[in-house]
Write a structure and sequence with these properties.
The structure is a single chain. This protein is α/β, with parallel strands linked by helices. It has one domain: Alkaline Phosphatase, subunit A (3-Layer(aba) Sandwich), CATH 3.40.720. Strands 1, 5, 6, 7, 8, 9, 10, 11 and 12 form a 9-stranded mixed sheet that branches. The chain has a 3-stranded antiparallel sheet with strand order 2-4-3, with no helix packed on it. A hairpin with a 5-residue loop joins β3 and β4. α3 packs across α9, α6 crosses α7 and α8 packs parallel to α9. The longest helix is centred in the last third of the chain and has 26 residues.
Length: about 375
């Protein structure tokens, strides 16, 4: 087993105390709730996702990348959606989509690696936040509710669950379970003098019993474990929920959003993939009767600059909007759109701390009124 420097750093950080977390408590027990996290890997361009077509500065900043007014899916007299987002636009019209504008954090960092680590640990430019932002809340849920696992990631990138030693499953675990060898097959391990690696190896061995138990519950699972794209990842999530498994959090991703050049069509195709996956997932979860108990949330390491570059693309930026979708949310546009006339080195300034969305999800969806982000005001989101 090989552990790279990045993995060791993340694992070491995960073993430290979660200094952001006050005491956690579950307000009330209820039936299963689900959270599907979609990482827009590479930093999605929010300005061409939720388009401020009502601002004259939009086309001045983007003479080649600006979307034509006639093509924009208008939501009000100022903003609209990229024409690739027809399913999400329909969910907005039916009150099943929140658009949260201007998300970011203090002291922004424009490194892909550093900033995604901050988003996934709940930190900012001065502190990385310790463990993954869901680790402490999921520990509480696992004690108060009967869970089959705490979370599962379908994209081969479980960094958001850094610090979760047991009950966090990967797509490789799913393949092991569905192969029929969950009891007999020993996960390959190797001895190591490094205590951090040794603890990680031990935790993977301890998960074997969990995998064996899940095998019995996955008899009705006929889905694919080949989760190479956002559509197949989301379908697998729906198939797993359809078996009756109680796993509260699933994480998927779609890459390619680092659009420094030739952005227009690349971005359009990426948003089309995202939109199809979200639309089909909403349909499937409605059929399963759990859409009202599910939230889908997008996130990305940062946004992109308001001003286009010389290569018909956009460079690393700061603030960006994101989507929160579900059957029981109050849809609409929330937060303040960053001012295009008040830029910092061509960057949009954030108007809402992204951790306010975490507080909203944990408080309102999972019933954890006391959580590591309870000090972040989400009144503008409800």
């Amino acid at each position: 087993m090989t552990m790279h420097r990045r993995d060791i750093i993340q694992f070491a950080g995960a073993l430290s105390l979660f200094s952001l977390a006050p005491s956690l408590s579950l307000a009330s027990k209820s039936k299963s709730k689900f959270l599907i996290l979609i990482e827009l890997d590479g930093a999605n361009d929010g300005l061409n996702t939720v388009v401020p077509y009502g601002s004259k500065l939009y086309k001045r900043l983007r003479p080649r990348l600006a979307i034509e007014n006639k093509d924009i899916l208008k939501l009000d007299n100022f903003v609209g959606l990229n024409p690739a987002l027809k399913n999400i636009a329909n969910l907005y019209e039916t009150g099943e989509c929140k658009i949260v504008q201007g998300l970011g954090y203090p002291h922004p960092n424009l490194s892909h690696f550093r900033s995604i680590e901050l988003w996934e640990r709940g930190g900012d430019g001065k502190s990385n936040g310790g463990k993954g932002w869901l680790i402490e809340p999921l520990e509480v849920l696992s004690k108060d509710l009967s869970l089959d696992a705490k979370a599962m990631f379908l994209d081969n990138a479980g960094n958001i669950f850094s610090g979760g030693l047991n009950g966090y499953l990967s797509v490789q675990d799913l393949r092991l379970i569905t192969s029929g060898d969950a009891k007999q097959t020993k996960i390959k391990t190797s001895k190591s003098s490094n205590p951090l690696i040794g603890e990680l190896i031990q935790s993977r061995d301890e998960n074997r019993e969990l995998l064996a138990g899940l095998k019995l519950k996955l008899g009705r699972f006929n889905g694919s474990t080949n989760s190479s794209d956002i559509g197949s990842q989301m379908k697998t999530v729906c198939d797993l929920i359809g078996t009756g498994l109680n796993i509260p959090v699933f994480k998927v991703s779609i890459g390619g959003f680092d659009t420094h050049e030739s952005q227009f069509w690349t971005h359009k195709h990426l948003l089309e993939q995202l939109d199809r996956a979200v639309g089909q997932t909403a349909t499937d979860l409605k059929r399963l009767g759990v859409w009202g108990d599910t939230i889908i949330m997008t996130y990305s390491e940062f946004g992109r600059r308001a001003k286009e570059n010389g290569s018909e693309g956009t460079d690393h930026g700061m603030a960006a909007p994101h989507f929160v979708l579900g059957g029981s949310i109050k849809g609409g546009i929330y937060g303040d759109y960053p001012q295009l006339g008040q830029l910092e080195k061509d960057n949009l300034l954030y108007s809402m701390d992204y951790r306010s969305v975490y507080n909203f999800v944990l408080s309102e969806h999972f019933g954890l009124k006391e959580n590591p982000f309870s000090t972040y005001d989400f009144s503008k989101i409800v």
